[in-house]
Amino acid sequence: MANNKRFGIACANSLLSVVLATTVAFASPHDQKLPHDVGEWFKQATPSDKKAILAHPKLLAEAQLYLVSCQFQTGADAVRACHNNQMQFVEDYIDAFYNHHTAQQNVAFDLDGEGGNTMPFPGVQVSHLQGCAWRLAIVGSGGPLVSQMDTTGIHDVCSPLSHLDQLAAERRAQEIDREILVHLSNGSSPITNADSFP
User: How many domains, in total, are found in the chain?
Assistant: First the structure.
């Protein structure tokens, strides 16, 4: 029984390593190309927002991996709202790696479909595993803004995942924590400075 458990953990760790390596390789800012309609969100950004976003090419490339086409939204207002959602997600994703608590919560909500509701956040791909990882990273930070809403989110989003997905989410949460420390120590600035606790 113990050997089966060790084998399962080893397989999960190997699978996660391949997934993370593939994600990092795909997220290279030098060769990242987006379909035209997915990149439309950037046109709606103000010049100062564009400058702030472009100052973080690696995080921008990672955030773009979670964006999906807005072309299936009905009507011009819905498409515009979808692009606004994407811009907000990218900004939140960047700020989340600077320990911005609200941005971290927003990223978790967006990735798990707004707290597990049936309607996903338009323009952002739902990934319960990634949403769970962000929730684990938030609670694991022990920050002064961690609340019962955060711990409840772990239960609601992480519990339904398979054992292997939970292991992968835990590994991803560890990587998020490591990346936060790197970004806090490298001297660059987040897009928004509110409620950051280095």
Answer: 1
